[in-house]
Structures are given as structure tokens and as C-alpha cells.
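I am hoping you can look over what I have pasted underneath with an eye to the fold:
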Amino acid sequence: MIVIDASGSIMGRLASSVAKSLLNGEEVHVINAEEAVISGTKEMVCGEYIEKRNLNHPRKGPFYPRMPHLMLKRAVRGMIPYQKPRGREAFKRLKVDVGTPISLKEEKAQTIDNAKMNDSSKYVKLGDVSKILGAKF
């Protein structure tokens, strides 16, 4: 099992490397999902997510998550063929948590080097976006 720390990582790049690991048959556990970063201004990023949430009928969908760990999980789901058996099995091997669970405190979490945030000044943390959407965590 691979434990990945999402702190300071760009969400899309992190999701693509996690999806690649899942499709290769590895079990992946992502921690600190609320510390992942989305690049762009706060108004642009939050506007896009609010637009997605208000896209259609609230009972009939499409349904977009508010919680940061589910938002990251949804980003990974978009990068695997989740409607086919291989993708469904890969998606079942993924676990994403807000914070660090007690069972993983002593395990060494690795970081993805190419997903690390560079010196770009415009970014929003995933936890901040989810709070604007109305998540309570």
C-alpha cells in the first residue's frame, strides 16, 4: 500500500499520478486531502465549482461533492475508466482522507515530486473551496 501526502500538491497532477498507480494494480491511500491546491484565482476556481454544483436539478443530478476528500476522489475517478471492470477495480483500491488517520500516523507518507506546488502566487486550497461550497468538516 502506498501512502501519499497531498499537502501542497496540485490536485490535477496528484490525481493523474494516483490514477496511474491504481491502474498498475497498487493500493493507494491519500492523506491530508484538504491541503491539496488548485491553481488559479479564488474567484475563478470557486466560480467553476459553484457552477458545477448548480448545473442541473438537485435531486436528479449530476451530483458533485462538497467535501475535500470526495472532490479529490472524483478528480481521480475522471482519470480512470471507471465504467469498465478494470477501472472499477482500480477505483476500489483508492482511499482518500481528510487529515491523517490514527492507523497511518506511524507510516511514512511519500509526496509526488512533479505534483508539488511551484512559486505560483495564485492558488486555492481544496479545503477553502469546499467550505465555500458549504461543507462542514
Observations:
- The beta strands are 2-5, 28-31, 37-39, 94-96, 123-125.
- The domain at 2-133 is CATH 3.90.1180.10 (Ribosomal Protein L13p; Chain: A;).
- Residues 5 and 111 are 5 Å apart (CA to CA).
